[in-house]
From TrEMBL:
The keyword Cell membrane applies. This is MFS transporter. Residues 14-342 form the Major facilitator superfamily associated domain. Pfam families: MFS_1_like. Keywords: Cell inner membrane, Cell membrane, Membrane, Transmembrane, Transmembrane helix, Transport. NCBIfam families: mfs. GO terms for cellular component: plasma membrane. GO terms for molecular function: lactose binding; lactose:proton symporter activity. It comes from Amaricoccus solimangrovi. InterPro entries: HcaT-like, MFS_assoc_dom, MFS_trans_sf. It is found in: Cell inner membrane. It is a multi-pass membrane protein.
C-alpha cells in the first residue's frame, strides 16, 4: 500500500492522530504529576487514575457503539473533544476532592470514546484511500513524542499548570481536524448495526478471547502509566529527562510503525504479533523491577515498540480481518473498554496498593500480566483461523 504522505487523506489522518496524541502524550505521563501538585497523595493519585480508567468500560462500550448506530463517528469525536476541553478548563476552579474526582471521570470518558472511534476512522480511511495504516498511525504518534518533550521542558520552566492548557488547545485542534476526517464518509448500501447485532459481536467467544489477549498484554503497562513518572522523580530523574524517556519509548514505536511495523504484523499475523507483545513485556517489566536509572532505561523504553506497537498492530489486523466494517467503532470500543478500561483499571488499582509498599517491585504486576497475555494468545491461535466472525 502507498505511503500516507502521498495522499491528502493519509496526511489528514496522520494530522488527526497527532492532535489527539498531543493530548494523551501529556495526560499519561504528566497528569498524575498535576494531581499530586494539586495535593493528592500517591495512593489517591493511583485511585483517581484507576477510577478514571474504569469509566472507560462504560463510555468505551456505549459511545462508540452509539457512533456506529447513528453513523456519526466524526460528530461524536468532535463533541467529545469540545467537552474534554471544557472540563479541563473547569479544573482551574476545583477546590474539593469529590469534584476533582468527577472531573477525572469526565475526562476519562472523553478519552475512552475518542481513541477507538478515531482508530475506526483511521483504518476506514486506509481502506477507502489505499494508504498504509501503520505509517499513518506512526506519523501521528510524533505528536505524542513532541508533547512529551515540549511539556516536560515547559513544566521544568513554568510549572505543572502548563500541562492543562496544552491539552485544552490540542483537544480543540482535534475537534477541528475530525470534522472532515477522510475515514468518515458514508458507504453506499451499508446498514448501521442494530443493538442486538452489536451485542452478538461483543459476546462472540472468539472475539472475547481476542479481547482477553489484548487486555492482558496492553494493561501490563498499568504500573508504568500510573507511577512511572512519580517513581523516576523519587529516584532523582529530572522532569526533562523523564519527558525524554517517554519520548524515546514513543520514538521507538514511531520508527517501528513507519518502517517495518506493517510488514512485521503482516508476516506474523494478528495472533503472533499480539504474542510478541506479551513476550517483550515479560523482559521489560522484569528489568524495571530492579529500579534502573542509567543507560539501560533507554533500551527498556525502546521495547515499547514491541510491548505496545506490535500488540496494537496485531489488534488492528485482527479487527480488520475478523470484524465486518460496519461494526468498526463498536469493536474498537469494546476492545478498548476491556484493555484500556476494566483490566487496566484493575491493574492500576493493584498498583495503587502495591506501589506505596513495594516501590519498583510493583512492576511485577506488569510481568505477570504479560505472561498471562502470552498464554491467552496461544489459545486465540487455536480458536481463530483467520475467518470473519459471523454476527
Amino acid at each position: 500500500m502507498a505511503s500516507p504522505l502521498r495522499s491528502a487523506a493519509g496526511r489528514h489522518t496522520a494530522a488527526f492522530y497527532a492532535s489527539f496524541f498531543m493530548v494523551s502524550g501529556v495526560y499519561m505521563p504528566f497528569w498524575p504529576l498535576w494531581l499530586a501538585h494539586w495535593g493528592l497523595s500517591p495512593g489517591e493519585v493511583g485511585l483517581f487514575t484507576s477510577l478514571g480508567i474504569g469509566i472507560r468500560v462504560v463510555a468505551g462500550l456505549i459511545i462508540p457503539a452509539l457512533a456506529d448506530r447513528l453513523d456519526a463517528r466524526r460528530h461524536t469525536i468532535a463533541v467529545c473533544c469540545l467537552f474534554g476541553a471544557a472540563i479541563l478548563v473547569c479544573h482551574l476552579w476545583i477546590a474539593r476532592v469529590p469534584v476533582l474526582l468527577l472531573g477525572t471521570l469526565a475526562t476519562g470518558a472523553c478519552l475512552a470514546a475518542i481513541g477507538p472511534i478515531g482508530e475506526a476512522l483511521g483504518t476506514a480511511a486506509s481502506r477507502f484511500h489505499g494508504f498504509d495504516y501503520a505509517p499513518a498511525r506512526g506519523l501521528g504518534s510524533i505528536g505524542f513524542m513532541f508533547a512529551n518533550l515540549a511539556v516536560g521542558a515547559l513544566i521544568s520552566a513554568l510549572g505543572v499548570q502548563v500541562a492543562l492548557w496544552w491539552m485544552v488547545v490540542c483537544f480543540l485542534l482535534a475537534a477541528l481536524l475530525v470534522a472532515r476526517h477522510p475515514g468518515g464518509r458514508r458507504v453506499q448500501g451499508q446498514i448501521p448495526p442494530r443493538i442486538g447485532e452489536i451485542r452478538a459481536l461483543v459476546t462472540n467467544p472468539v472475539f472475547c478471547v481476542f479481547v482477553a489477549a489484548l487486555s492482558f498484554t496492553q494493561a501490563s503497562h498499568a504500573v508504568f502509566y500510573a507511577y512511572g513518572t512519580i517513581h523516576w522523580t523519587d529516584l532523582g530523574l529530572s522532569e526533562t529527562r523523564i519527558g525524554a524517556l517517554w519520548a524515546a519509548g514513543v520514538g521507538a514505536e514511531i520508527v517501528f510503525m513507519i518502517t517495518v511495523g506493517g510488514a512485521v504484523a503482516g508476516r506474523l499475523g494478528p495472533v503472533r504479533a499480539l504474542g510478541l507483545s506479551g513476550l517483550a513485556g515479560i523482559l521489560r517489566w522484569a528489568a524495571m523491577m530492579f529500579d534502573p536509572t542509567g543507560w539501560v532505561l533507554w533500551p527498556l523504553m525502546g521495547l515499547h515498540a514491541l510491548t505496545f506497537a506490535a500488540g496494537h498492530l496485531g489488534a488492528m489486523a485482527f479487527i480488520t480481518r475478523a470484524i465486518p466494517a460496519r461494526f468498526g467503532a463498536a469493536a474498537q470500543g469494546a476492545a478498548a473498554a476491556m484493555a484500556a478500561g476494566l483490566i487496566l483499571s484493575l491493574a492500576t488499582a493493584g498498583a495503587a496498593w502495591a506501589y506505596p509498599r513495594l516501590g519498583g517491585l510493583s512492576y511485577g504486576i506488569g510481568l505477570g500480566m504479560s505472561a498471562l497475555g502470552l498464554g491467552v494468545c496461544v489459545l486465540l491461535g487455536r480458536v481463530w483461523r483467520g475467518q470473519e466472525l459471523a454476527v
